Amino acid sequence: MIAVFSGSVDDVREKLEDSTKQVLDAFPGNAVVGRGLEKLLLDRTEFDTTIKTESSELREKIFSCSSALLKGKALSCLRGFEVGEEANPEEYRNAVAQEMGISAVELASQLYGDLPPFQQVLRFRKMSAEGLLHRYNCAQIQGLLLRCEAMTVCLPESGTASLRQLLKYLRFNKLLCRISRNKDKAKSLLLKIDGPLSMFVNTQKYGFNLANLFPAILHQPNWELEAEVRMRKNQLHSLHLDQTCGIRSHYKQFLAYVPEEIKLLSQQLAKKLPAWELTSSADYLQLTGESVCFPDYLLTHSSGKKVAVELFHTWHSAPLQDRLQQLDLQKGSPLLIGVNRSLLKNAELSDQIESSSYFSCFGFYFREAPTIAKIIPLLNAWLKV
Fold first, then answer.
1. pLDDT tens across 20-57, in order?
2. What are 275-289's pLDDT values in tens digits?
3. 159, 221 in Cβ contact below 8 A?
4. Is 294 exposed, middle or buried (0-12, 13-18, 19+ CB in 10 A)?
5. Alpha-carbon distance 165 to 160, whole Å?
6. Sign of CA dihedral 34, 35, 36, 37
7. Given a cut of 70, is residue 65 above it in pLDDT?
8. Which of 13, 154, 328, 355, by CA, is between 20 and 30 Å from 290?
9. Which pTM does this prediction carry?
């Protein structure tokens, strides 16, 4: 299958699919597995999907000409072609192509060139057969996580560098989880993440983001995952996995990755408040009890004073409630809180935000992304703490 895709560059989608069908028809195993492998390889294939207005214009001219010819109104418009019993489609195609100023071969390729079956294969990202099987097995787990209500990940004695990578993936996918230390194992961290079926908004997008996290978990040296998954007929099942599953991640570690929103905020901050520097947060904060917070940003003043920023998006209502309770109890935490305005639709949460003494001092609202104008007053207030 990989060989077929590798040799498909410059062919059209229809030819590629015909070739893969031949492979699948001869596949001795489960046909569903074969189609799954094909789907993963199609995801690695780039097709020419640009809108070609010339194709639709060409079709209009040809169909108009053909219609007129069939009605006997265009016998003289096509040079070298005469209607009669001796006429054949090949002669007609050649005559039409000549009228259009292109060759008969170009006519055949351009006539439907903008439709999916005739999209050209531009590129295929190659992979090994073993890598494809790991990707397939990983996708099976991701498919289950799309239907989960809750997921817990235990990281026993995870190294600082690998843990930071996982937390970066959490932030990259805008997943906010409850992070705490395991009471039984002091060096272990517990990550509790709400599943998409526990959400009431953006369920599909949130489920997709959660599924995207699983390959990042595979990079951890030791891990345990438990999830509650609803399957057919709404039955609840338990999923248990750990590092012994043997699935290999297809993710590359993005050590140097800097989100665009951080770049933009950094530029704005440099203009407005050059004494402050904004970076991606590199570590977590210990809060009340066993709770741990991994913020989105870290702001560092030239004096050496630091304050982190944690953002709460549309689906983060429950974690926000917990965080506000913690911060109201723990005065002086080095943390600014950003809340997406969509969360104010929750009347109970809106009341809690309004009554929070900590949020009134160190909290702000945002829509798509935070702005420096919202953060500047809080930074000035933080310097006086």
1. 999 999 988 888 999 999 999 999 999 988 766 677 77
2. 888 887 656 777 766
3. yes
4. buried
5. 9
6. positive
7. yes
8. 355
9. 0.68
Round to whole Å and give the CA distance between 264 and 371. 9
Q: Rounded to an integer, what distance in angstroms lies between the CA atom of residue 46 and that of residue 37? A: 16
Distance of CA 263 to the CA centre of its chain: 20
The Cα-based distances of 219 to 28, 213, 249 in angstroms read 33, 11, 7
C-alpha 323/C-alpha 153 separation (Å) is 20
Residues comprising the chain, all counted = 385
Name the one residue in this structure whose structure tokens are 């919202």: 374
The Cα 154–Cα 192 span in angstroms is 9
Q: Tell me: pLDDT of 59 over 60.
A: yes
Q: State how far the Cα of 175 lies from the Cα of 209, in Å rounded to an integer.
A: 7
What's the rounded mean pLDDT across residues 190-201? 75
> Residue 247 is which amino acid?
I
Q: Given the DSSP bridges, would you call strands 291-293 and 178-181 parallel, antiparallel or unpaired?
A: antiparallel
CA distance 142 to 148: 10
**Full set of structural domains in the chain with CATH:** 1-126 (no CATH), 130-245 (3.30.70), 260-383 (3.40.1350)
- What tokens appear for 224 in the block? 């345990």
Tokens read off for 245: 């599953």
